[in-house]
Amino acid sequence: MNFKTTREFNKNFKKLSKKYRTLDEDLLEFKKILKKFPFGLGRHFCVLNKIEAVYIVKARFFCRSLKKKDLRIIYAYIEKHQIVELVGIEFIELYFKGNKEREDSKRIKDFLDNLTTQ
Fold this sequence. Notes:
By secondary structure, the protein is α+β, with helices and mostly antiparallel strands. It has helices spanning 7-19, 23-36, 105-117; strands at residues 2-5, 45-51, 54-63, 68-78, 88-96.
């Protein structure tokens, strides 16, 4: 399965990884779960939007540095696309629940708009 990240996700990740040192390893574990279960397991995953074969999923992201599930991650699971490299998972946003209540809907909309133009 292909894993990609948006530029905004990379900025979020870099900022948070300075504060939470285990974030790199935690993301690797999260990817292992997504390889087997792209929609996640249990009630900690929620499909926010579905357009054709693209699912936008919000999940609680466990970080060992926090010892709680206070981080949220937004990703797109792309089942089928004309361009094979796009099939897989692309991470859109990562944020701390204490600083931000909800996901950035404009960022998700921009991501979907850019995806449909490719």
